[in-house]
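Ticket #4471: structure export looks truncated?
Reporter: QA, pipeline team
Priority: medium

Steps to reproduce: submit the single chain below to the structure queue and open the exported record.
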Amino acid sequence: MRVAVVGAGYAGMAAAMTLAESGIPVTVFESSKTLGGRARGIKYKGVILDNGQHILLGCYVETLALIEKTCDVEKPFVRMPLALDIDHFSMRALPLPPPLDLLFGLLFSKGLALSAKLGAIRFLALTKILKLEKDMAVAALLELYGQKKQAVDCLWEPLCVSALNTPIAKASAKVFLAVLKDGLNGRGSDIVLPDVDLSSLFPNGAAKIILKKGGSILTSTAVSAARKTDEGFELMTENGSHIFSHLILATAPQHAKKLARNFPDVEIPDFAYQPIVTIYSRYPEQVRLPKKMIGASQGLAHWFFDRGDGLIAAVISAEGKHVGLSQAELASRIQAETKKIVPDLPLPLWQKVVHEKRATFSCDVDVRRPERMTSVPDLYLAGDYTAGSYPATLEGAVASGLACARMIAETI
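Actual output as written to the record:
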């Protein structure tokens, strides 16, 4: 029994590590020389950045458990109660048992009219039990439950775009409700900000465990094709072919679709995709944002993050006004928007624009997502795009990888 995992992102590494710990021989193939997939560290001007600024939530229990198990940094992330500062709106989760921490946090928030607050509180309380028989757009759901424009602009839309990376006019209400529901459980709404790059946060540590357990990780090794033979699954690379008893395709869906072309019964939809743009700006070390995370609803950037030592990351999620702008235009606009937050802001020492054009699948209403167990025996799909209650998040990716590993382990 030998398992091949194609793709060393969070889904693939979660699957491979779980298999290795179960005593199942596993080999990971990764076309890049860096682990992490679409959540990886990159080096620029001597600084380790990420290919996109990510945040996690307290309800990402599978991901956080793996990070704490694998990351060799003593404090790999900062975890804090939910705090939102978006334009004139400001709220803090209060030190109360959930869900009262959020409900009373909304009640005592600043920047919303009382009617908008009460409507938001009623809706948030309802999300814990609300079930939709038919999916609809998040915008339609908010209208159905009487959410004021002020609450939509400063609260619900920023949360939806951050979680689903899809505009509320087309985002799935069912998926949004699943995220809100989990956020109300325990400390599920906590904000978790990584203090290390995304490769070091989990994939690099997982790799050490995989190798220690006798597994293999082949970086800079692209799989060009896969087919089923009498001996098992044959994977073709530039270094020759390899035979395995089981196969997990843990790449982005467009790449998985190409690798599955010899398996006509395996259907991977042609997804629409949404981008994420992260603009890193390096200033003198004394430059700081007023808070570690600040939101905005009127400009290009949705969120600004203080990464410390004068490094500020601005994130633009999903499709929007930034589409078609050059990197120079994006950098200039973000400098102007940051100056509104830090009035005495100097010119940056440098800026780096990271544009992931296919960062996530578009989490639209009734989006069709493939099952992880395929119709081909011993062939599995792992990735944040596979069937599940979560959108394209690190938690969705990790959960899919763990599920594939457990299904294989059950066949022994």
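Status: closed, not a bug. The export was complete when the record was re-opened. Leaving a note from the reviewer for reference: The chain has twelve helices and 20 strands.
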